[in-house]
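chain below, 327 aa
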Amino acid sequence: MFDPVIPIETQMQVSMVVIPVVFGLLATTAVGLRIAARHISHRALDPSDYVMIAALIVNLAFCGLIAAEPFTGAGMHMTDLVARYGTSPIVTYTKMTVANQILWALAVCLPKVSILMLYTKVFAVPFFILSARISGVVVILLGVATILGALLQCQPFAYNWDQTIEGGHCGDQVLSFKITASINVILDIVVLFLPMPYLAGLEMAWKKKIILIVTFAGGFITCIFSALRIAAVVNMDYADLTYLAGLPSIYSVIEPSLIITLACIPVLRPLLGGDYSSRGTYRGSGPKKVTDRNVPCQSFRLGTRKKTGFFTIDDVHSQGEDSSSNK
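prediction:
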C-alpha cells in the first residue's frame, strides 16, 4: 500500500491500529441497533437518523485512516524512522494528517448535528428549538472553518509535506488547532447541557429521572477526550512528530466514535420489548403519564402531540402522523 510499508513494532503502533478498529465497530454497532429499533417500532428513518448514518460512514473512513498511519511510520520515533526508511514515509504520513483534519472535522460535526435535530423533536419548546438550531449552525460553521483551515493553512497546499518549495509558507498551525479544538469542547458542553433543565424539571420517579439524565450526560465522556486531545497536541514536541502524534490521533478517533455511540442510546428503548402499532405508537402497559409543572412535557409512553408540546424520545418519529390526525 505504501512504499515502503513500515512493520508494526512498537506498542504505540499497535494501539493506533487496534483502538480505531474497536471504536469503529462500537459506533457501527450502535447505529445498527438504532436502525433496528426504528424497524421494531415500525418507524421510518428520519433526517436525524440519516445524518447519523452519514456520520458513521465518515467516522469509519477516519478510523481507517488512523489505523493505516502506523504503516507510514506513525508510532515510531522520528530518528529511528529516518535512519531505517529515509524521509519518504514522513511525507506520506504528513499527507495523511491533512486528510485526517478534514475527516475529523466532519466526524465530530455530523453526529452533533444529528443530536440537535433529535432534540428539536423530543423537546418541542420554541425557545429550546431556537437554541438547538443556533447551536447546530455554530457546529456546522466550526466544521467548515476547520476544513478550510486544513486546506488553506499552508500555501501552496503541497507545502504541508514539502517545505523545500520556494516561497511556501504556513500559518500558525498550533494556534489554529487550539482555537478550533477549544471551541469544539465548548460546543460539546453546550450540546451536553442543553436539555438538562428540561430533563431535571420532569415529574417522575427520581430513579428514572436519574437514569434519563445519566443517559444524556454520557456525552461528558467525549468532553474529557476532547480536552485530553488538546493537552496532548499543545504539549507535543514536533521534532518527534511521528511518535508523539500517536496519542492525539487515538484521542481524535475515540471522540467521534463515542459521540455516535452515546447519541444512539436514548432511542434504543424498542429493543427492550413492547407492543408498537403499525403507526409506531407504543401500546404496551407502562408507567403513568409523566407531567411537569415547570416545563412542557408529554407522556414518555405516548406518541401523540400534547398541547404542551413535549415528545418522548422513542416516539418522536410518529410526530408527523399524530399531529396530522389530531388536527
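The chain has one domain: 11-272. The longest helix spans residues 88-122.
thats it, cya
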